[in-house]
Write a structure and sequence with these properties.
Elements: H1 3-25, H2 42-60, H3 71-75, H4 85-104, E1 114-117, E2 121-124, H5 125-149
Antiparallel strand pairs: 1-2
Helix pairs in contact: 1-4, 1-5, 2-4, 2-5
Length: 151
């Protein structure tokens, strides 16, 4: 892997540990928990992280062949269906591996390429990487709060 890409991937990998540490502690009984008045359960948030990682792999970093059905993004609300811990863990493992492949495919010059999305406008790929790191950490923080105080 090219050195700049390796350094940026290390930032993502370290940032994602906020999420994976919580993921290792989850039980199926935790998945429907919410923190009132928030409408989103832990299960929804886990699925959402995976959905967005796959969207970034495909739409931001241009990885060909990525199939993503970002149901949490498309619906925008928690339907209560995200209650299978094994399936959710498999999904976010797949999303992490796919995002890693997308990042590893970037050349040094690619990080300065400007991309545009309706969600966050025009950004370089390096700036977009910051967006996915902060997105995952933000929702990991929500999961942590729901684990501590939710029901």
């Amino acid at each position: 892997m090219e050195p700049r890409t390796a350094s940026l991937f290390a930032v993502l990998a370290e940032g994602r540990t906020r999420f994976t540490t919580l993921l290792d502690r989850l039980t199926e009984a935790d998945l429907p928990k919410k923190l009132a008045p928030s409408p989103n359960s832990i299960g929804f948030l886990v699925r959402h992280i995976g959905d967005v990682e796959l969207l970034f792999a495909k739409n931001v970093f241009g990885l060909a062949g990525v199939q993503v059905h970002a149901r949490t993004v498309a619906t925008g609300y928690d339907s209560g269906e995200w209650t299978d811990l094994a399936a959710l863990k498999a999904y976010v493992l797949e999303s992490a591996v796919t995002l890693q492949r997308a990042i590893e495919a970037q050349a040094a010059a690619d990080w300065d390429t400007v991309i545009e999305t309706k969600e966050f406008g025009r950004r370089t790929k390096a700036e977009a990487l910051g967006r996915i790191v902060s997105h995952t950490a933000y929702h990991a923080g929500q999961i942590g709060l729901v684990l501590k105080y939710g029901s």
